[in-house]
Amino acid sequence: MTTSVKNNFMPPNLISNLNQALLRRKDAEQDESFKPTSSSSQSEDVNFNVEDEECTKPKILVTNGDGIESPGLTYLVEALVKEGLYNVFVCAPQMDKSSSGHGVTFGETIDVSSVEMSGATAFEVSGTPVDCVSLALSGALFSWSKPMLVVSGINKGSSCGHNMFYSGVVAGAREALIGGVPSISISLNWKKDESQETDLKDAVFVSLPIINTAIRDIENGVFPKKCALSIQIPTSPSTNKGFKVTKQSLWRPTLCWQATSAKRHPYMSNQPCLGFQLAQLGRDASAAGAARHLTGQKKNVEIESVGLAGKSNPKQVVKKHFRLEFIDKELDGVDEDSDIKALESNFVAVTPISLSPYMESDIQIAAADWIMSAFIDNQ
Questions:
Q1: DSSP β-bridge partners for residue 300
Q2: Distances from the Cα of 309 to the Cαs of 38, 40, 199, 316, in angstroms?
Q3: CA gap 70, 152 in Å, rounded
Q4: Does residue 322 share a domain with residue 176?
Q5: Where is the composition biased (Polar residues) (predicted)?
Q6: Who's near 10: CB < 8 A, 6+ residues apart?
Q7: What CATH number should be reported for the domain holding residue 122?
Q8: pTM of the model
Q9: Could you list the mean pLDDT of each consecutive 10-residue stretch along the chain, which spans 379 residues?
Q10: Which of 79, 183, 329, 357 would staple 173 via disulfide (CB 3.0–4.6 Å)?
Q11: Could you tell me the residue range of the domain that residue 242 belongs to?
Q12: Can you tell me whether residue 258 is helix, strand or coil?
């Protein structure tokens, strides 16, 4: 489906202009903060006003798919706190859950622990990004249930095309949309042996203007209500060509299953909570599984998976090992308005995400109109 919106990309110098305006505003705020007060009573009044202001600041919930210790989330939270405009809350997975899709942890207990994150109220969750957002919006963890905006990211690796279905960071934003809360997911097109951690910092500066504008327009009631926004930032954020409203493409990576051996992965013993997970699996084994092992007294034989095994003994249980890898494919015949094409052309791709399996044209147009008006106003 194509959108009727034309000229749906921003001028090449838009991001640098927005960042310069942002830096000027920060300098002005810092100058104001150094003005002296004339008496202690004035100081007390200032403290009171600060506390009152904290209560009225918009609440932003931040989650991600890469895990709470990922630098993308850390830099984003630091920048939002430094802005001084929001009350920032964080509820993110304890471990990397970047390919968990819209998975939830049902019927099991998850652990939630507070985390020190300067200027923000933060928790790590032993679950998925969807668990994190659902828990945060439930009112069971925080004293509120409806932040003004949910931001999911910044994750390493794009979520274009069919990757949206696998993506945990997109699922976090989608879950917020299900809960009736405006949301944005942000991913950086991270490339192995090419990208650096400083690119994540640059991605934050690209993201801040759209977050700030989203908060402003949510307050004014003009932010699109029927969709979330998936923001895909190109590999070199500082040299991007501007924003471009896109549609989700049919592009997908190749899912490659590699036959392997357990002996080839000594790192597994170093994985956090692996022992606990294995023990949990043992406790949760079904009665049917137990019966299967008891009948026939079959011998469990572990073989190295290097190809098709020969005819097995019916009294033997053969165990194999496989590992899944995503391999990027070439962009053949990809639409110019698609997310992956815009991203590879060095644009920041902004893709509306609908809860409907088919993107309604009015949603696409509304989202495109908002992107255009939001950033033209900032020039």
A1: 317
A2: 85, 82, 46, 13
A3: 12
A4: no
A5: 35-46
A6: 242, 243, 244, 371, 375
A7: 3.40.1210.10
A8: 0.69
A9: 41 46 50 46 42 76 96 97 96 86 86 95 96 95 92 90 82 94 95 90 95 95 89 94 84 70 50 41 42 45 50 71 68 72 91 75 77 70
A10: 183
A11: 14-36+46-252+331-376
A12: strand
